[in-house]
Structures are given as structure tokens and as C-alpha cells.
Write a structure and sequence with these properties.
462 residues, OB fold (Dihydrolipoamide Acetyltransferase, E2P), 3 domains, 8-stranded mixed beta sheet, single chain, Rossmann fold, binds S-adenosylmethionine, alpha/beta, 9 helices, globular, 7-stranded mixed beta sheet
Length: 462
Amino acid sequence: MTIKKRKAYELEIIDLAFGGKGLAKPDGFSVFIDRCIPGDVVLAKIIKKKKSWAEGKLIKLIKASPLRNEGRCQYCNFCGGCKWQQIGYDRQLEYKKRHVTESLDHIGGLKDIRVNDVIPSDHIYEYRNKMEFSCSSKRWLMPEELENEDVKKDFGIGLHVPGTFDQVIDIHHCDLMPELGNEILADVRAFIKASGLPAYHLRTHEGFWRFLMLRHSVAHDTWMVNVVTQSQHMEVVQQLAAVLTEKYPQIASVMNNITDAKSGVSLGKQEICLWGDDHINEQLGKFAFKISANSFFQTNTRACEKLYAKVSEYAALTGREMVMDLYSGTGTIPIWLSGQARMIYGIEIVTSAVRDARLNARLNGIENCEFLEGDIKDVLPRLNQQPDVLIIDPPRVGMHKDVVQQVLAMGPERIVYVSCNPSTLARDLELVSRDYDIKEIQPVDMFPHTYHIESVALLLKK
Ligand SMILES: C[S@@+](CC[C@H](N)C(=O)[O-])C[C@H]1O[C@@H](n2cnc3c(N)ncnc32)[C@H](O)[C@@H]1O
């Protein structure tokens, strides 16, 4: 069969590929199709064609795989939030482990690395402590709404449909966050609709309402509501804060981030605390944390404790070591390890995260953690220290190539590398593998129903 662009084909999905897409192999030619699972027979239209592979768009599910579950969420076939709800959780974990092993092999050329079974998340729904909903003046319609002329299309608040940057599904219920979040979302939607102010339009860059970010504290069962707007309009947002806080005693903080930046980011150029605290209080193990609206904090609080327990095990500290934590966020790893080391440096680029880290160390009475602000590649040469143990927890893009060289030059005996992206994990491990043995990798599932997987790798100097 010769696969041609824009034509539709009946294909059998035989595997799950990189990025969570279904893989069909008509006559050995690879076709990747989103939202399909092994065992499905589908009609797919080819939307991209390269020499050795193609990408198809699911048109119709002809025969459902026996592995397919009913997704719990009504939007799960359309929304970009979680695409794997139809796959049983045990099987998701198998695929995630394989994804790590195959990335190491295919991208890093690293074979025979010990990859343990994935540590599961205890909660597979309502596990996210942070959700960010976009406001759009262009609403994406669900199939059952297409024929309904009464449906209003000029406002939606929810999650993006993959492949469309300016359209959102008007989400009325998201299973990834605790239930009260859905009630707050409904009230914010109603308020915005009644406000008479338009949602921001990503093409024209006009409109007021941009995002609603909700943060939940698992330890205290409290919420932060952060409304992101294009400009300052105190009367309106104050009114929203009053409506919400009157109804929900669980809301501990209402923030307003204001940004006219044209990119779709929720980080405000200006931040105003409208009600309560300018942070939310959370607990990891025995440590307390204050988290600002824009600071990074692991999104699955309980799974994060399991992740850090692994970091702690691999770091194998005796109390005498000097430790460096690169990409330290709000200081959670240094604080977690503080009782086990002599001194810990955390390095982080986001000002508010460094401020939170220092505050959090003080809050917990910790005196052996120091936090430095700046780009790792600039801070490391200035700091000019030789750590005994190095923790590295970079963003999805992995380590900058200069940082890799700096790490090799420092040459710590032990490195614990935490990664949220198996591809860059494989690339970075390969870059240091001449000097380091990769002893073991422990995947930890922080994101059920998505193909994302967190991994902790233990590296020992050769
Ligand atoms: C995956 S998070 C890890 C945070 C922390 N270790 C934790 O577990 O919560 C990555 C962090 O790296 C920071 N970051 C990204 N690029 C950076 C850079 N070039 N220099 C320093 N920090 C950076 C981000 O702001 C973010 O806080």
C-alpha cells in the first residue's frame, strides 16, 4: 500500500509510539495517529507525509481495541489535557516504562540500562494541584453542539484543542483537579459572561480575560484563584474576588496577574493580591511551603513525595556532603534533603521561585540551604564550587550544552538526574556517559492518563 497525503486509509494500530500516538505499519511504513490505542482499527486521513513515516488524523474508529476503556471525562476524545483515559492504568504504566527504555536506546544509544517498574500515582483522578484554563473569544464546539444554532460561540473557558492555538473547549468539568475546582470554574465562567468584558483573542490581541489559574493545597484543602487579565480593571476583579470568597471559605488567596504580552503566557507583568494571602500553603512530608502564583511546584503533590524519597535514596547522603541542586524551583529538593547534608546550594532562574525558596527555608528553620538566582550556565562559573553530590532537575528541554560541560568539569562523585522528558534525559545521559555509569533509573508517574513520565536516574563517577 502506498500512503499518500490527504488520502484516508483503514489502518490497524499495532503499538503506542513516542509522544503517546498510536502506530500503524501498513506494509512496514510507519503511520502515527493521535488518540488511538493498540488493537484499534481506524479510518485515518494522512495529514503529513515524510520519506519514512506519516502522520494521520483519526476520522473514525471502525473497531475498538479490546484494551479500550470508556474514558471518564466527556471531553477526553478532544481535549489536550489527558489523552490516555481509555487505556487501563496498569497498561499506561507499562507503556511509560517502555517509553523510558526505548528513549534511552533510540535517542541516547544507551542499552541495557536498569529501568525499574514505574512507581504509580496513588490517585489517578483529582491529582493535579494546579490547573490553568484559557479564556477565548473563539469557542471550540463539541460534535453534539455543531448543529445547534442556539449555542453561543463567542466565549469559552477551558483547555486547548491540540493543533489549534486560539480555540478552547468550554470545559465544565475536569477530572484532573479536585471537585471544588469545578465549582469555582463554573462561577468564574458565569461572572465573566455577565461582566460585559470580552475574552482575550490570541489573533487580534484584544480582549480582557486571559486565564484562570487554580492552585489547590492538598495538606490544607485550600485554594488560590489567579485571574490573568490583559489590563488593570480593579473594580471588576475585586468584585469577582468578593463573589468567590463569600461563597467558598476554602479560598485562601485571590490574585490578579496582568499582562499585555502577545504570547500565550499567564505570567503577569504586574501582580496584585486581591484577597487573602499572596501565596498558598502546602506541605511535603514534614516541610511546609509557601507557593506564589507563578512559582514552579510539582503538580502532583503526593506523587512528588514519592519522587523526592527516591531522590533522597539515590543521593545517599551522610550529613557531611556539600550538595548542589540545579534548577531548584521553590527550593523543595534542597529543603527535603536539608537534614541529610552539610550544605546545599540551589540555583534557579525565576525570581519569585528563589524568593519562595529562601522564605520556605526560613519557614522550616533551615540554615544550611542557600539559593542563588540566575541562569545555571552563568551562576555555576561564578559559584566555582565542587559539590560531592549534584542534583539536576531541568525543564523539559533538558540541560543547556554549556551546563553539561560545566557538570563534567565539576565531576561530582554522584549525580541524581530528575527528568520530566525521556528524550532529553536520554540525550543528556549520553553526553555524560563517558565519565559516569548510569546505575539505575526509577520512573515515577506524576501524570496519570497522559503519556508524560518523570524519571530519577542515579549516576556514579567512573
Ligand atoms: C522541572 S522544574 C524543577 C523544580 C524543582 N526541582 C522541583 O522539583 O520543584 C525546573 C526549574 O528550572 C528552572 N529553570 C529553567 N531554566 C533555567 C535556567 N536556565 N537556569 C536556572 N533555572 C532554570 C525553572 O524555572 C523551574 O523552576
